[in-house]
Structures are given as structure tokens and as C-alpha cells.
Design a protein that fits this description.
Blueprint: E1 19-20, H1 26-35, H2 46-51, H3 61-73, E2 81-88, E3 99-110, E4 113-123, E5 129-138
Antiparallel strand pairs: 1-3, 2-5, 3-4, 4-5
Amino acid sequence: MELRARYDDVAIGDSIPPYTAPALSRMQLALFAGAAADPNPIHVDDAAARGGGLPGVIAHGMLTMAFLGELLTRWVPQRDIRALSSRFVAMAFPGDVITCTGTVAAKSVQDGEKRVELDLAAQNQNGEKILLGRAVLALP
């Protein structure tokens, strides 16, 4: 049986269940670079990253955004996602543990569809926000 959030069961200010990704590994960054066709060496080579003024290898922003997608699809089926946007506010590094959270910011009915807007955030193990976002979901 599929578990689904229901429009009538959520209120503005409610939090959805958080998602914590496993610690970022260099292998994960290399695999994501290949899958995303992003060969930028700042994601896999410390010397190249330092040469670009960074402290070392950094995670792909789109990888951390994918964690927000994982947060959402653990709460609703992917087909219920109507919009997902984010803004990168800090870098993530190998070894970081990223936790994603969502809070109901608004409820509405649009085109006959019950919709919920969520404020989203991703933060590292030190509580530093690395990503802020917004999602719109259709709920039964």
C-alpha cells in the first residue's frame, strides 16, 4: 500500500519527515560527475579545486538539490511534485552529512487541484544551511 500525505491532514507550519543522506563520499562525487556529464575537476581533484580558490573538492550543487528531491519523494509520489526550486547558499564537502527538511508554508486550490507549498532547507552536520528551496505538491 502506498503511503501518501493528504491535503486535509497537513497545516501551515507543519514539518514533513526529514531526510538525512549518508556522508558525501569522493566516490559518490565521481559517480555523480559522470552521471551528470559534469567533468569540472573541482568536484574530484583537490589540486584543481585549490587552484580555483576553494579549500578542496566540493560537492555538486545539483547533487545536494537531488537530496531535496529525495526528501519530497519519501513523502509523496514523484507524480505529485508540481515545482521544485532552490538557491545554493554554501558549499558541501566530502564527509558532510546533509539533512533536508520541509515546512508547509501555504495551502491552496489551483485548477481544481489541492496544493501545498513547502519551504525547504538542506544543512550540514554543523547546522550550516547549504541550500534553501521551495516546492509545490498536489495532494489528494
